[in-house]
Structure to design on (208 residues):
């Protein structure tokens, strides 16, 4: 049996890896930026959307998932950097995280989706990242005045992982990734879905 005090190493890894995603997402590549390339002004912290609003905008499967216990979802700040982190879990992941008993078979059903918004005036520009060969051209990002940090050969149909494509608009970065995206409830979590979700989230930001 699996419970909060007695989990297999794999079960603990499945739950705690959400923190790895947040760490990866918050580690945007930093560099002195070219003001001419930062066309979008940085939104203030109070203009960023809440996790519940993000879930509604993203839709399935996140809209039907619950927030992960102890995942520290919500606004965050680190010096002059700030943003929002939201983590949702599959029913099996939430059940085990809450200390309810489960079977070993539940491990395969445990998965999480973590969305990270970061605002940082000191990020690399598109031209700098493109010169390093890490820009994926996509019309959805261009439609909001942004670009995507990812391998140019990104497979949109592939499952989103802990290092998902990152949508960048000025000083704002948004990424959505998954831990154990092979869990049945996360079947639709692909790189294509992750880009759609990031763009939908950016549209929620109050820019007035």
């Amino acid at each position: 049996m699996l419970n909060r005090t007695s989990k297999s190493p794999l079960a603990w890894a499945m739950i705690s890896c959400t923190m790895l995603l947040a760490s990866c997402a918050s580690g945007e590549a930093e560099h002195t930026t070219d003001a001419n390339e930062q066309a979008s002004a940085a939104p203030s912290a109070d203009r960023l959307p809440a996790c519940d609003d993000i879930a509604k905008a993203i839709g399935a499967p996140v809209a039907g998932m619950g927030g992960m216990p102890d995942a520290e979802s919500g606004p965050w700040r680190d010096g002059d950097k700030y943003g929002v982190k939201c983590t949702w879990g599959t029913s099996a992941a939430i059940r085990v995280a809450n200390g309810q008993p489960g079977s070993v078979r539940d491990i395969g059903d445990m998965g999480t989706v973590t969305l990270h918004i970061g605002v940082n005036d000191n990020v690399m520009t598109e031209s700098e990242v493109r010169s390093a060969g890490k820009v994926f051209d996509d019309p959805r990002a261009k439609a909001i005045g942004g670009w995507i940090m990812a391998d140019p050969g990104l497979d949109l149909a592939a499952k989103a992982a802990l290092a998902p494509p990152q949508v960048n608009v000025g000083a704002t970065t948004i990424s959505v990734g998954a831990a154990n995206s092979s869990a049945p409830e996360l079947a639709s979590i692909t790189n294509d879905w992750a880009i759609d979700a990031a763009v939908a989230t950016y549209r929620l930001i109050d820019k007035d």
